[in-house]
Amino acid sequence: MEIKREPLGPAGRGSPGSGLSGTGLRVERLNAEQMLRGAALEGPNQSAHLEGAELERYVQERVLTTTLDSAVAWARSNSFFPLAFGLACCAMEQFHTAGPRMDIARFGFEAFRASPRQADLIILAGRVSIKMAPIIRRLYDQMLEPKWAISMGACCSSMGVFNNYALVPADKFMPIDVHVPGCPPRPEALMHGVLKLRKLVQDDPDMGWRARYDAVGTEENI
Amino acid sequence: MPDATGLELLAAELGDAALETVYFRDRATVVIDPAKIRAVLAALRAKGYTFLASVHGVDYYPEGPRLGVMYELLDMHKVDRITVKLRVPTDAPSVESVTNATTEDPGWPTANHQEREVYDMFGVVFEGHPDLRRILMPEDYEGHPQRRDFPIGGEPVIFTRDEAGLLESRIEEGTGA
Amino acid sequence: MSSTEERTLSDYRRREQSITLSPLETQDDRSGEHDELLTLNFGPHHPATHGVLRLLVTLQAEIVRDIKPIIGYVHTGIEKTAEDKAYWKVIPIVERMDYLSYYFNAMAYCGAVETLAEVEVPKRAQYLRVIHLELNRIASHLIWLGTSALDLGAVSIFLYCLRERELILDLFEMSSGARMHTRYFQVGGVIEDIPAGFESKLRKFLEIMPARADEYGAILNSNEIVLQRLRGTCPLDADTLLGLGVSGPLLRAAGNPWDLRKADPYCSYDEFEFKIPIGTVGDNYDRFAVRLAEIYESVHIIEQALDGLPEGPHITEDRKIALPPRHELATSMEALIHHFKLVTEGMRVPPGEVYFPIESPRGELGCYVRSDGSSKPARVHMRDPSFVNLQALAPMVRGSYIADMIATTAMLDPILGGIDR
Questions:
Q1: Which of 107-136 (C) contact B at CB < 8 A?
Q2: Residues B120 and B143: beta-carbon distance below 8 Å
Q3: Residues C57 and C39 sit within 8 Å (Cβ to Cβ)
């Protein structure tokens, strides 16, 4: 078996946009050069370089914003305030996730708020009936930005065991960031979903679903 | 459960209200004339069946009369159960409600929500019910879901790879309609 | 019919968006005061309603004058879905109805189908069923205790109860592979015999459970706030409750010792000795005390069942109802054919209608199954105890404070999955 080795430096990089450097290691680093030149390196026109004062300002903006953004994202991700919202059987497993064995408080998420105005994470635990859907939408709308949603269990993610007239999948009326499968998902599974969301928020301060739905810029920053 | 002979005697006492008796798996059922439900329940209460355990509906599609309502009665002292069954057709699904008290009969308050559920799911209209509205479905829902000819419904599963396309089609529908 | 539909449509929408203020004729001794009736909406999203229960509360200052529960927010069409599936596939559907007492849902349904199909359940299966049913009763009471204490403000009890419930769910996972909604009960018995080590783990649990229940009693019974909130609040007498169709711990708290396990025994309950805790006054404290005492009784029943567990098959030998064991498939042609027919088409049940009631942690849980001779049930209806018990909420809370209403809703132990089905 032949092993191919390639250096990971700027010379051995693949195309800037791919993220893969040919060794199979998926390491994306914000190279200073890439950052400095900005989008110019990634587009077809690679000759637009910033000079002098413009360059300095560009650098200052980028570095500050990136670091600050990361810090804010880190803080946000480690202090979700879930909405105390259980619909059906999954709510029982949600209790167990907050219980003594699979303690959600170790991660800092034990502050289940009763009011949607104070919460930033809604965990839809259970089946969503057609009567309940507009109410959940109203709750979600009442939550302040930034907000995330986890669809816990098979019923709200994808109709689950009951595929009938009375239920509606949560994706139909609100954007969901993480779907947790299971019927009901074990507390470990829900924890995995919440931690996945935490990683999502940490890595991507761009708040996931907005990029997917092409809705960047619709945040309401008060 | 009253045994088979006990059931026959009971039916004889109810007179022409009782149309048929069924003794199946040690359980007694009396099929009665829908117009006489209050009288039958009052007579059974006098015999000791004081607890109305359940009121539920059945759709006997395709046999007619399609809509059946069953009243499960329980005698707590003799530990006896009896089922009272009545059948109404879909074009005239009207049964007298047993919820409210009248001058002759104290009524069965437990039937309140249960009759509303039978109305919601099957469309049986209970005359004289204090508040006959839909209980499980949204109040402006059309159709009676538990009937056998009502489609089971359901939604296709939305996969992440279909999400973008779905959003576009929904936007088109919104602007088009 | 259409005009009434239209009228109810606009009425409903108007009511949805209104808060009504209407003057109250002051005929009582508060002469000269001007009181108004305020209709307030509780829920469906509310931290103190157990699940998505919506209450329209008519208040006069802090006193509740009338209450109107609105349900249907988690209506799942379980009964309709059950008509679409083979008999054994209905078991997981029906289990998810009253989602805290899943074994009871399965028991009621399996009992009804066994009555229809005239299947005899072997003794070992009956004892195993009793063990799991009583474990589920303890688990259901633990969640009730935890969430009710949470409503009253005693937050630590919630964590203690969940700690015990984890042990019970571990036992369920050991016997069936899943913590909740285990599909353990099948028509004719249970799906699998208990594994090695289950008995010793269960015995260890039974040793510590009474002491833990003593702990909860000690914490709550010496807490002045809990006593003040529960003693003497919202009593209701047994006759009104019987008229409303209420059964289970609510009826027993009012003094009527009606328990289907004793009165009309099913599944070998007549072979066990246990007491029925009843209350005297019928107020919230009695409801709380009755359920707490039931935990001890359930532990006692499980001990007896474990001691007397007979040898034998864990499911009926009738191959037209239950799957043959896998080792038989290699040697017997009939077993293969039976397996094939059962898995593809399902069992056929003779036509008829049967209502099978059992005693669930909330009251009389009945299952009505109508069969038309095919492999799918023609109608499955679950008579859920919470659905009927909810009608008792209004008479209970009329004339009491909002705080008492919250305590009463907690003591009523409504499970919205069962109410809405």
A1: 115-116, 118
A2: no
A3: yes
Residues of chain B neighbouring A212 (CB-CB closer than 8 A): 163-164
Cβ neighbours of residue A158 closer than 8 Å, sequence gap 6 or more? A169, A179, B157, B158
> Are A184 and A93 a contacting pair, CB within 8 Å?
yes
- pLDDT by residue, tens only, chain A of 222 residues: 667 777 665 544 444 444 443 333 333 444 444 555 554 444 444 445 566 676 676 666 555 557 777 788 788 888 889 987 888 889 999 999 988 898 888 888 888 888 899 998 999 998 999 999 989 988 998 888 788 899 999 988 888 888 888 898 888 888 888 889 898 899 999 999 998 888 888 776 445 556 556 666 665 544
* pLDDT at site A44: 46
| Tokens found for residue C419 | 């109410």
* Calpha distance B161→C323 (Å, rounded): 39
Inter-chain touch A85–C143, beta carbons under 8 Å = no
Structure-token pair, residue A9: 């430096």
Among C380, C356, C358, CA closest to C369: C380
C76 close to A127: Cβ distance less than 8 angstroms: yes
The residue written with tokens 């599609």 in the block is: B61
Say if the Cβ atoms of A164 and C81 lie within 8 Å: yes
Structure token digits, residue A77: 């991700």
Beta bridge partners of C186: C189
Q: Which two tokens stand for residue A193?
A: 């979903």
Name which of C75, C115, C250, C372 to mutate to probe chain B: the one with the most chain B Cβ atoms within 10 A of its Cβ: C75
CA distances from C24 to B11, C32, C62, C253 (A): 51, 12, 14, 35
Name which of A94, A137, A155, A162 to mutate to probe chain C: the one with the most chain C Cβ atoms within 10 A of its Cβ: A162
Q: Which helix (H) or strand (E) holds C200?
A: helix C198-221
Query: What Rg value do the Cα atoms of chain A yield, rounded?
Result: 22
Give which of C261, C253, C209 is closest to C104, Cα–Cα. C261
Compute the distance between CA of residue A142 and CA of residue A124 in angstroms, rounded to an integer: 15
**Closest Cβ opposite residue B140 in set C12, C364, C420:** C12
Residue C283: half-sphere exposure toward Cβ, Cα within 13 Å: 12
Dihedral-angle region of residue C364 (phi above 0 means left; psi in -120 to 50 means alpha; beta otherwise): beta
- Angstrom distance (rounded) from CA C178 to CA C174: 8
CB–CB contacts below 8 A, B to C:
107
ipTM at complex level: 0.88
Using DSSP's 3-state secondary structure scheme, residue C169 falls into helix
Do the beta carbons of residue C112 and residue C354 sit within 8 Å? yes
**pLDDT tens digits along C94-126:** 999 999 999 999 999 999 999 999 999 999 999
Tell me how far CA of residue B57 lies from CA of A162, B54, B72, C170, in angstroms: 21, 10, 11, 39
The pLDDT score that the predictor gives to residue C125 is 94
CA angle C15, C17, C21 (to 5 degrees): 70
Structure tokens at B55: 């009121």
Neighbours of C9 (CB within 10 A): 12
The radius of gyration of chain B from alpha carbons, rounded to an integer in Å, stands at 21
Find the DSSP H helices in C222-361. 224-230, 238-243, 249-253, 260-263, 284-307, 326-329, 333-344
Which residue intervals of C56-118 are DSSP H helices?
78-82, 90-95, 102-117
Question: Which residues, 6+ apart, have CB-to-CB distance to A188 below 8 Å?
Answer: A102
Question: 């009969």: which residue's tokens?
Answer: B105
Rounded alpha-carbon distances, angstroms, from residue C162 to A9, A77, A108, A123, C158: 53, 27, 19, 20, 6
Answer left, alpha or beta for residue C189, where phi above 0 means left and psi between -120 and 50 means alpha. left
Return the DSSP state at A12: T
Give the C-alpha separation, C136 to C200, whole Å: 18
